[in-house]
Design a protein that fits this description.
Layout: E1 4-8, H1 14-17, E2 22-24, E3 28-32, E4 39-43, E5 49-55, E6 61-67, H2 75-87, E7 97-102, E8 111-116, E9 119-124, H3 127-131, H4 133-144, E10 148-153, E11 166-171, E12 179-183, E13 186-190, H5 205-218, E14 223-227, H6 233-238, E15 243-248, H7 251-263, E16 271-275, H8 278-287, E17 292-297, H9 309-326, E18 327-337, H10 344-358, E19 362-369, E20 387-393
Parallel strand pairs: 1-4, 9-10, 14-15, 14-17, 15-16, 17-18
Antiparallel strand pairs: 1-3, 2-6, 4-5, 5-6, 7-8, 8-9, 10-11, 12-13, 18-20, 19-20
Helix pairs in contact: 2-4, 8-9, 9-10
Bound molecules: S-adenosyl-L-homocysteine.
S-adenosyl-L-homocysteine (SAH) binds next to α6, β15 and α8.
Length: about 400
């Protein structure tokens, strides 16, 4: 296949020269022989080589850069890049799961690979990555020795690439209903076929561990409200608190949360699983005058686009306002946003607004983010989607 060529408009090459991996259609002067999903060489307006990437005319992001060097992008190249990403991860003693490839942040735009024990889950977000997924499965087997690769490319963003959803076995066996993993020493069951993302929110590993430490300090009488619990990640990590309430709108998530609680030998009587809308449940708790030592707020992405930011901000404010009202003086609020369109700074302002309305006081004890197996390339600020605050509420 001949390689296409793309010329960047004069004055529009700075981000690319500085290492940003996206070239938008508006920055492109013209393209020659570029085919969707195939490689292109990128040149500046004076015909000097800038980078090599892959093309998709259907996407606003028409080129995603793979290399800033004039080198061949062949199987050996992909394998080398996968190897860099994978060897930079070290599984801690208490871990059998981690993100191995974090897309643009590992210089492999559009590709996510997560490891769950003896299974790999691959997510192909773009056409070029989708077209090469068999090759990736081969390379991953060579590099990790893991024979089972499951695909979870059933995500909406693929529409922007002109792709439908795709999921199923890429290599090896059909996965069982649940796979047991360990994260920071805690055991979880993961449904890689139907679970969210690739099955589990691996990115919250360090924050769950932090909650475990806080819970230990709070003592055995502590009460935890875990909102948007999914499969109970935070509550199970908190371990032997007196009472943990998990709230989620998805019944299947709560079923796994209950199973995870039992798996970690947490007494059934100390945990509750409530299928409810978290906004309503918070209001209910406020009206009942409930109080908790720890509240975790980990909602789904409210803003997928910039135009949803204001609505999302109102949602975050409402949640945080009621959460502040529920925390015992001296207790903890761990609050998150995973909306890429909401910056860390803006999120903190929203939480500030909620605090003012609640008439409480709070101290930032820590800024929170994704675990270290979810690196963010400094040249790719879009990579920082998860942001959070650990607050002591007075
Ligand atoms: N804290 C979780 C991850 C949360 S993901 C963990 O540690 O694994 C967001 C969760 O919010 C999903 O499980 C989703 O089912 C749930 N959810 C989405 N909208 C909701 C709503 N309005 N009320 C309650 N739960 C909701």
């Amino acid at each position: 296949m001949t390689e296409g060529k793309v010329w960047v408009r004069a004055g529009r090459d700075k981000p690319l020269r500085q290492g940003h991996p996206w070239l938008f259609s508006g920055a492109i002067a013209h393209a020659e022989a570029a085919q969707d999903g195939e490689l292109v060489a990128v040149y500046d307006s004076r015909d000097r080589f800038l980078a090599r990437g892959y093309w998709n005319s259907k996407s606003q992001i028409q080129v995603r850069i793979l290399s800033w060097r004039d080198e061949a992008i062949d199987y050996a190249w992909w394998r080398r890049m996968l190897s860099h990403a994978i060897t930079r991860r070290t599984l801690g003693a208490g871990d059998t799961a981690c993100r191995l490839v974090n897309a643009e942040n590992d210089y492999l735009p559009g590709l996510i690979v997560d490891r769950y024990g003896d299974w790999l889950v691959l997510q192909a977000l773009t056409r070029a990555i989708d077209a090469r997924k068999q090759e990736f499965a081969d390379a991953l087997l060579e590099l990790t020795g893991i024979v089972n690769v499951y695909e979870r490319s059933d995500v909406e963003v693929r529409q922007r690439e002109g792709l439908g959803e795709s999921a199923g076995v890429l290599r090896g066996q059909e996965p069982p209903a649940t796979i047991e993993i360990k994260q920071a020493g805690i055991r979880y069951l993961v449904d890689i076929r139907h679970g969210h993302k690739t099955g589990f929110y691996l990115d919250q590993r360090d924050n769950r561990r932090l909650l475990r430490e806080l819970a230990a300090d709070c003592g055995t009488g502590a009460r935890l409200l875990n909102l948007f619990s999914y499969t109970g990640g935070f509550a199970v990590a908190a371990g032997g608190v007196k009472h943990a309430i998990n709230v989620d709108s998805a019944y299947s998530a709560l079923e796994l949360a209950e199973a995870n609680t039992a798996l970690n030998k947490i007494p059934a009587a100390s945990a509750e699983f409530i299928q409810a809308d978290a906004f309503d449940y918070l209001r209910h708790c406020v009206s009942e005058g409930e109080r908790y030592d720890m509240v975790v707020l980990d909602p789904p992405k409210f803003a997928a686009h910039r135009r949803q930011v204001q609505r999302a901000a109102r949602g975050y404010k409402d949640l945080n306002l009621n959460a502040f009202r529920l925390v015992k003086p001296g207790g903890w609020l761990m609050t998150f946003s995973c909306s890429g369109a909401i910056s860390r700074d803006f999120f903190q302002k929203i939480v500030f607004g909620a605090l003012v309305d609640s008439r409480r006081q709070a101290q930032v004890i820590r800024q929170l983010g994704a675990a270290s197996d979810h690196p963010v390339a400094l040249t790719f600020p879009e990579g920082e989607y998860l942001k959070g605050l650990l607050l002591r509420v007075n």
